[in-house]
Amino acid sequence: MAKSSKDKPGKKKKKIEARQSEIHGNGVFATEAIAKGERIIRYKGALRTHDQVDADYGELEENGHTFLFTLNDDYVIDANIEGGVARWINHSCAPNCEAVVEEDDKGRPHKDKVFIEAIRDIRAGEELTYNYGITLDERHTPKLKKLWGCRCGAPECTGTMLQPKR
């Protein structure tokens, strides 16, 4: 009998699945327990320059929904194109995961990667979340805070996905 890709040595079974979320739209949920510190999934999408992303999306009206992940000063991961399951992980003010940028050891910014890792133990059935860390140069007006509103429902929810100015 032929082996499936799940049976290949070294091939890790995914412990997550995407489905409807109470937070917002789709979400990603643990199908089995995930340990604190575990690397769960890579955030994938097309590698694009900031100028390319600005040219394609700069004129579109903001709607508080994004699949763009700033990788570094040179590149953005655009999960609108060739995006993986990680793009469905929702924001939370009390996250159970974090996004970790792994820089290329040879200093090639186009080879940097983003992984989602557990920052605490996660139960089977629990939705995965991380803080999107959205920063804007412009003033955080009530309109922008509402546009980038947070729906996480955590007791410590700030009401917005925008990060405080430093």
Description:
It is a single chain. The chain has 166 residues and is mainly beta. It has one domain: Beta-clip-like, CATH 2.170.270. Strands 3-9-8 form a three-stranded antiparallel beta sheet, with no helix packed on it. It has a three-stranded antiparallel beta sheet with strand order 4-6-5. The longest helix is centred in the first third of the chain and has 8 residues.
Task: Describe this protein with a few key phrases.
disordered N terminus; 25% strand; globular; single chain; 3-stranded antiparallel beta sheet; mainly beta; 166 residues; Beta-clip-like; 8% helix
**CATH architecture annotation name:** Beta Complex
Number of domains: 1
**What name goes with the CATH superfamily?**
SET domain
Number of strands: 10
Low-confidence runs (pLDDT<50, min 5 residues)? 1-7
The third-level CATH topology is: Beta-clip-like
Largest sheet: 3 strands, antiparallel
Q: What is the mean predicted local confidence, pLDDT?
A: 90
Strand order of the largest sheet: 3-9-8
- How far the N terminus sits from the C terminus, by CA atoms, comes to 59 Å
| Radius of gyration based on Cα positions | 17 Å
* Class derived from helix and strand content: mainly beta
SS field, number of helical segments: 2
Q: What string, H for helix and E for strand, traces the elements in order?
A: EEEEHEEEEEEH
Strand content: 15-25%
Q: Which CATH class applies here?
A: Mainly Beta
The helicity comes to: under 10%
Overall shape:
globular
